[in-house]
Amino acid sequence: MLISVQALRALAAWTVVCHHFMQIFFDFKARGPLGQLFIDKGAVGVDIFFVISGLVIFLSTEGKSLPPTRFLLYRLFRIVPAYWLYTLLMALLVVFAQPLLPDQSLDWNHLLLSLLFIPTENPGGYGIYPTLNVGWTLNYEMLFYVLFAWALLFRLEVRLLVVAALLFAVSQAWTGFGWISAFYRSDIVYEFLLGIAIGMLYRRGWIGAGLWLPLLGIGAALLAIYHLSPAPRLLNWGVPSAVLVLSCMALERYVERSRVLKLLGDCSYSVYLMHVLVLSAGGFLAQRYGINPYLMFGVCVLAIGVGSWLSYEWVEKRSYRWLKARVDDEPVENLSRQKY
Q1: Which pTM was predicted?
Q2: Where is each Acyltransferase domain found (predicted)?
Q3: Within 10 A of 315 (CB to CB), how many other CB atoms are there?
Q4: Residues 74-106: pLDDT tens digits?
């Protein structure tokens, strides 16, 4: 994985954290221009995630003879254990610590559908969200994985077209007939294609190293995100997110040795999954005991940072290696020497 992409993934995760801080602590009521910025634009972290996801999946399968079923198993091993853990923790908090999550309610059928990545109306009545609310993005991720698995049956040069055709069929044609949930009709699903396209450009050597041009691209992308509304999402936030990813890749030589940025990127998935739980607890304590919200946010950031590192090391890595070893019939100690 490119360290520049890891750094951007970490930035995207923490941008979403700040967005939800404004929601949980201030009910999306701005406390200054920075707070308003995170309220209005913090959700763009998801768009960056989706572009990076398309890029990573393309690069990780390029040049490999990987059967579709094996690809899907590997992605499930990578995504599911941590997601199930934090979903179940959320369910337990809703049942046994309701004051922490006053707007949440639990329905066992909905919990099961959440664990299976099937979009359905949240029992709290605020939209199609799983038990762990941030998991709505993983429903899109799983759709992308399934469709990309089909594309592995085709040669590398046409995979982008195959995935694009399948995405269009699912999100536009099939949802219109009610075969697939209308949840997938959002144009955000096409942001994965932008990541695949960037991966193709990178493998062909068309993304060269640079400094001023990539920095200009980053500045232009950030200005576009700042001035444009999130609709239409693919055009207004998806394309600038793709420019951010591409520009950061061109800066790889300046960060390629940074262990800190790599670690932050490694932990970003756990940051994304756990942050709402930590912020909810922090918001409850701040309100009950009159603690300054920004001081409590600092405590939450520390807790999320340490917790995500422990989660990455003890949940994500260990579960992935153990499950992969079962499928590959390879000793776990051999996998521990491989790059994760």
Answers
A1: 0.94
A2: 4-309
A3: 19
A4: 999 999 999 999 999 999 999 999 888 888 889
Q: What is the pLDDT of residues 298-319, one digit of tens each?
A: 999 999 999 999 999 999 999 9
| Three state DSSP letters for 172-200 | HHHHHCCCCCHHHHCHHHHHHHHHHHHHH
What are the domain boundaries of the chain?
A: 3-335
Tokens read off for 125: 């009545």
Which has the closest alpha carbon to 336: 326, 252, 320, 328?
A: 320
**How far is it, in rounded angstroms, from Cα 232 to Cα 228?**
9
* Among 332, 252, 300, 312, residue whose Cα is nearest residue 8: 252
Q: In this structure, are residues 20 and 279 in contact, taking their beta carbons and an 8 Å threshold?
A: yes
Instruction: Label residues 9-41 b or e (16+ Cβ within 10 Å = b).
Output: bbbbbbbbbbbbbbbbbeeeeeeeeebebbbbb
> Any idea what DSSP says for residue 169?
I
Calpha distance 61→74 (Å, rounded): 11
| Cα(84)–Cα(273) distance, integer angstroms | 10
The CA distance from 258 to 263, in Å, is 9
Buried b (16+ CB within 10 A) or exposed e, 162-175: bbbebbeebbeeeb
Q: How do the residues of the chain divide into helix, strand and coil, expressed in percent and rounded to 5?
A: 75, 0, 25
